[in-house]
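step=predict obj=Ammonium transporter n=448
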Amino acid sequence: MASAITTLAADAPTLSAANTGFMLICSALVMLMTPGLAFFYGGMVRVKSSLNMLMMSFISLGIVTILWVLYGFSLAFGTDSGSLIGWNSDYVGLSGIGITELWDGYTIPVYVFAVFQLMFAVITPALISGALADRVKFGAWALFTALWVTVVYFPVAHWVWGAGGWLFELGVIDFAGGTAVHINAGAAALGVILVIGKRVGFKKDPMRPHSLPLVMLGAGLLWFGWFGFNAGSWLGNDDGVGAVMFVNTQVATAAAMLAWLAYEKLRHGSFTTLGAASGAVAGLVAITPAGGAVSPLGAIAVGAIAGVLCAMAVGLKYKFGFDDSLDVVGVHLVGGVAGSLLVGLFATGGVQSDVAGLFYGGGLEQLGKQAIGVFAVLAYSLVVSAVLALLLDKTIGMRVTEDVEVAGIDQAEHAETAYDFSGAGGGAASRNTAAPAPSAAASKKVDA
């Protein structure tokens, strides 16, 4: 992602109505991704947990927005301090910013940059929630979200994108969030689930998605919103780089979906809708850091590699015994790592910068920088997230009781259920027609 730069007064940009409008549209597209993620996750859980899953994503829109305005934008994009964190008192409460004040070196207002970056901050903790389905208290999750963005997301965003941030200065390429968003969230998910443990019945009871149409709808909304997420990260539309990123986003996502389905057919014998949706998301994740550095042919390679690797990775939770409910680790962590490292191989040196990867004559230097960025963010997020979860678990408690988990977290935490069938039927015909007695099979309680 483009960051603040210093320009000479003679070259100082002026506000561009076109770029400002473009970035506001991109910001709205990224905002739509969080409800899209809620549908994606909400359809993947059992019906008794679907509202809770929706809410775990949706609440991020409230909590993170307020914290971003109060201090998050200042910590992430304020004046650098020690290459680790930022601060600018004018950004506190967004109160010291002029309405036409431009983001340094760009033709968009600071307010536009701030709201675009806000949407990234919103969706990142929401991504974590998919690993924790069925078993976390909603109040504890809300508090975790507030603490996590404060001590993990805001600093990491500064490292990666803030002027003076140590990974930014090192030259790590992360066009739109492979490290700051996806590796960050995936590593956090792993840290938390290692603390709170497995769901009741993990590896024993069927835990099938209750609504695959919702999953497909969510994946479609994510795919749509991701064009704003990726193409908008160049902060303008003047030189064609954003257009390349737009094309690469589509190409890599398509390649990853096909690669996942091919692996699934060879491995399990079927092409599933869940595989198609998951493969698409894997491609979106992988191209996020790489799409501004590779060609469309490189994007095909990035997507195909990520599709296969993520499809292989989702089964690791059964092998190693960690309960990543909706495959956040397998898709976002693995996909983010793959996409970030593949920059070091497939960067052409002819798109966002002149940095070339190994396959384009650039040697191993950029791959080394990418590896530093990947494992620094992974380690920091994993450890700090686990510590936060442990503190909350030992104080207010992170998990619901076993009885609540078995009965369904929706009713206990939200006093609601996703579907109300009590009013189904009705009408004159149904009142005048005797209903047949239910069969023994229909009377059995189904797994919700």
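step=describe
The two ends are 43 Å apart (CA to CA).
step=end
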